[in-house]
Amino acid sequence: MIALGIDIGGTKIAAGLVRSDGRILDRTTVPTPAREGSSAILDVACTTAESLLDRSPDRVVGCGIGSAGVIDPDSGTVSSATSSLADWVGTDLRGGVRRRLGLPVRVLNDVHAHAVAEARLGAGAGANRMLLLALGTGIGGALVDAGRVDRGRHGAAGHFGHLPVAEAAGLPCPCGRSGHLEAVASGPAILARCRDRLGDGPELTDTRDVFAAAAAGDIAARTVLDEAATAIGAATAGLINALDPDLVVLAGGLAFADRSWTDRIVDQARSGMIPVVEQCPIVPSQLDVGSAMVGAALWCLSGEEVQ
Amino acid sequence: MIALGIDIGGTKIAAGLVRSDGRILDRTTVPTPAREGSSAILDVACTTAESLLDRSPDRVVGCGIGSAGVIDPDSGTVSSATSSLADWVGTDLRGGVRRRLGLPVRVLNDVHAHAVAEARLGAGAGANRMLLLALGTGIGGALVDAGRVDRGRHGAAGHFGHLPVAEAAGLPCPCGRSGHLEAVASGPAILARCRDRLGDGPELTDTRDVFAAAAAGDIAARTVLDEAATAIGAATAGLINALDPDLVVLAGGLAFADRSWTDRIVDQARSGMIPVVEQCPIVPSQLDVGSAMVGAALWCLSGEEVQ
Questions:
Q1: What's the family (chains A, B) (predicted)?
Q2: Looking at the complex, does the CB of residue A246 fall below 8 Å from at least one CB of chain B?
Q3: Which of A48, B42, B46, B271 sits a CA distance of 20 to 30 A from B217?
């Protein structure tokens, strides 16, 4: 069986034809018209997808969409999102794509979709219960148990960046609350905190600059990164203690920014894990970010009814 | 269908015959010979259970056991436990009870068993995805989703007392790690922290004395209880953000110790919940602690295979 997978992100839209064993038969990527509103985004996504459908020799049974934002499991609409896509909240993804393509459509969050792929084809292959932690512009993740991604009541499960950590006490979080992991350990938080400490120091334009400054011996950069790693490690340990997975997969750009920094996260996590779960492996993801497209297609093919 | 339920706790063993609708047809309770070792405990539990089986006019199809300690899902043995039951770690509960009673036996942790009952018959009835938080000598809980209690790889899921919280930063936890919720918010932690602050003040022998001292205006008691409520609230919010349940049920003795204190926990939780899940109800449990016996029996009848 073959499904169409579409991954709608803030900068690009990836579409592909995916076989039930995970093999990608055809794929293409286009820039997201992020500022043009949801209708334009769906038009571009579906035009791109149609080019794949038109040239496919095989029947495509359905379409799985992995999208930025919180996807309501009942309606397949976007119920919450950052401003990276204009006008995205309220978008009827399921209905909008179904109308345009004439295929059955299933929609889930892009991190959830990545987790489905990682569990089937990546670091989680062979494990029954995989916890994925995605570290990047935001911090999120997913639990995949027996092939089923745990979406929660509103499709919001996996907001692991909004766990409390000591390092973030009193600090404002992008969600509007305070004290959450994301306030100290997302890419933008690390960059902003390092800038604050440096004052008139070297110009930093990207989180990568913070890692570079730390590698060059800058104390402010090292302190900020140490606090972030400690916080991520503590939260990871808390999740392992609370959820008892077979393994934890660290994904997202930050997980691959600096090997010794990621090692520090793992060490910190180990120092917080209770004895009964202390053997839980913590490993890097094996699939790249494009895997959300594959995960969405596989999830569509799985036919899992979550509603 | 009728199953035997057995709840093995540190002070008493409850046994009962439970119908699949949750009705208790017969029940009895005996003291746990906690210091005499696992064989003596199983003997007492099974002798008690046999008295129920002997006088039952109906066929009993199996036995569900809810037990203190972490129960390995594969083997039905106790893989980890506090010292409240002598010699409990390593006990083959499934095999030991099956041999004595000649019935099919299924075993799970007592908090997980309580959660099964609460989800079916208590505050979670009608909800699809219930998160239970049990506040007492320890802090634990369970997620029950679509009738299935989430036990985790080692049966250790629900160790919510071992989430990081700012209020516990640097404080030793009974698990051997530090910085965990249980270090500031379990009953014994509240009592010990209040004693530490009071020095030569009034004699405190029980966590209830701390609540009484706070009600009488004692500043040390109020401070310790405030920190505990803040920590529990923050962890509860983190769990709601991470797991997106339909509702949260607060159970255990501490949840009923003082109404205004529990209200404070709920207020603190609400201040940490992200917008997409902020409507999640947080309610008191409806079933008493004896419900672990009922939950174990219902779980046995559900025939759910978790291995």
A1: Belongs to the ROK (NagC/XylR) family.
A2: yes
A3: B271
